Amino acid sequence: MIERIIRAVAGTLVLVSIVLSLTVSLNWLWLGGFVGFNLLQSSITGFCPLEYLLKKKATAKRN
C-alpha cells in the first residue's frame, strides 16, 4: 500500500509541476526534477523520504 501511495504522490507532483510550468512559470519544472531525483536516489540507496514519513505515521497511529 505504501508503494502505491508513493507512486501516486510522485506522479501527481510531476503532473502538477508540468501544468504549473505551462501556466505560471518555467521554474516549476524544478519540482518535477526534484521528484525525479528523489526517485533515482531511492532506487540506488533504498531510502525514500516519503516512505519513511508514511511508516512513521503508521507506527504513531498504532500507539
Describe the protein in words:
The chain is 84% helix and 0% strand. The protein is mainly α. The chain has one domain. Helix 1 packs antiparallel against helix 2 (29-45). The chain is elongated. The relative contact order is 0.15.
The count of β-strands is 0
Note the beta-strand portion: under 5%
Question: What profile does the largest beta sheet have?
Answer: none
Overall morphology: elongated
Order of helices and strands: HHH
The structure class reads: mainly alpha
- What's the total helix number? 3
Mean pLDDT: 93
Cα-based radius of gyration, to the nearest Å: 14 Å
Q: Give the % helix.
A: over 70%
Q: Uncertain segments of ≥5 residues (pLDDT<50)?
A: none
How many separate domains? 1
Terminal-residue CA separation: 20 Å
Quick take:
It is built from three helices and no strands. It is an all-alpha fold.
Set out the fold topology.
Layout: H1 2-23, H2 29-45, H3 49-62
Helix pairs in contact: 1-2
Can you give keywords for this protein?
mainly alpha; elongated; single chain; about 60 residues
